[in-house]
Specification:
The protein is an alpha+beta fold. It has helices at residues 54-73, 104-110, 117-137, 202-205, 213-228, 233-249; strands at residues 9-11, 17-18, 25-31, 38-45, 82-88, 92-97, 102-103, 140-141, 150-152, 158-160, 167-168, 176-177, 210-211. It has 2 domains: 7-97, 2-Layer Sandwich (Phosphorylase Kinase, domain 1), CATH 3.30.200; 102-249, Transferase(Phosphotransferase) domain 1 (Transferase(Phosphotransferase), domain 1), CATH 1.10.510.10. Helix content is 34%, strand content 20%. Strands 1, 2, 3, 4, 5 and 6 form a 6-stranded antiparallel β-sheet that branches. It has a 3-stranded antiparallel β-sheet with strand order 7-9-10. It has a two-stranded antiparallel sheet with strand order 8-11. Helix 3 runs parallel beside helix 6 (233-249) and helix 5 packs antiparallel against helix 6 (233-249).
Length: 250
């Protein structure tokens, strides 16, 4: 696979999860000395974008590098935990985290209705707590929040990740110029250096775009609806209430 981080572990050749929106390929792995201890390798191969324009290639790589390095700096029970820092080589980028089995996007596509009301409620609250930490303690806006940025571990806990679009030093009520624009020109299946527009707040899609911590709250509301649509109304109402409390507390 062409990255020295992969030689330290026994890594499954085929990825356990991949989507163009995630950009990384997720490979299940285990420690050679302790085969029972699992981890997940996030792998990106530069050959995937070798035919892209130079500017697009550079922005995608920088986005992935920021994702990994931002996760390395943050520690919270509901944020993806890095156990092996990013290794960048000529043909690949890779880092390792505690084990995950996929994303919420995968869940929505395949077996959302297999989750109980309690599992959905706990998952959404996991993410709300992670976002609260990101906003109140790290003073950071996520700005790329979507089902592809929420990972699920083997125990069913939901973990916030995909921090490549994040912006630090942000306060509640403070809107700043968006560090990116939405071109809407990406073909299906291609990798983008823009956040998923489907979950972007209206102010982010304007020209010029503005964004802030409140933009994340809008995205959380958009995500809550499809996740909670098949459960009791009180589940959705309670999670939305938590989001509003977080906003007011900020």
């Amino acid at each position: 696979m062409g990255n020295k981080i992969l030689t330290q572990y026994d890594v499954q050749k085929e990825p356990c999860y991949y989507s163009p929106e995630l950009r990384w390929k997720l490979h299940t792995a285990n420690f050679k000395e302790k085969p029972e201890e699992k981890l997940t390798i996030f792998l990106f191969e530069r050959k995937v974008i070798e035919k892209y324009a130079k500017n697009a290639k550079e922005q995608i790589v920088e986005l992935l590098k920021k994702d990994a390095t931002s996760l390395q700096r943050l520690r919270h029970p509901h944020i993806l935990s890095v156990i092996e820092a990013l290794v960048e080589e000529r043909s690949t980028l890779a880092f390792a985290t505690k084990p995950v089995v996929g994303t919420v996007a995968q869940l929505l596509e395949n077996n959302r209705h297999e989750l109980s009301n309690l599992e959905m409620k706990c998952g959404l609250l996991d993410v709300a707590e992670a976002m609260q930490f990101l906003h109140q303690d790290a003073k950071t806006a996520h700005l790329g929040f979507s089902p592809y940025s929420i990972f699920i571990d083997p125990q069913g806990k939901w973990l916030l990740g995909s921090l490549g679009f994040s912006f630090s030093g942000v306060q509640w009520g403070q809107l700043m110029d968006c560090p990116f624009t939405f071109s809407g020109q990406e073909a299906p299946g291609t990798l983008s250096f823009e956040p998923p527009p489907r979950y972007a707040a209206p102010e982010m899609c304007a020209f010029p775009g503005k964004c802030g911590l409140e933009s994340d709250m809008f995205a959380m509301g958009l995500l809550t609806c499809p996740i909670a649509s098949s459960v009791m109304p009180c589940v959705c109402a309670e999670v939305v209430l938590v989001c509003w409390i977080m906003a007011a507390a900020g």
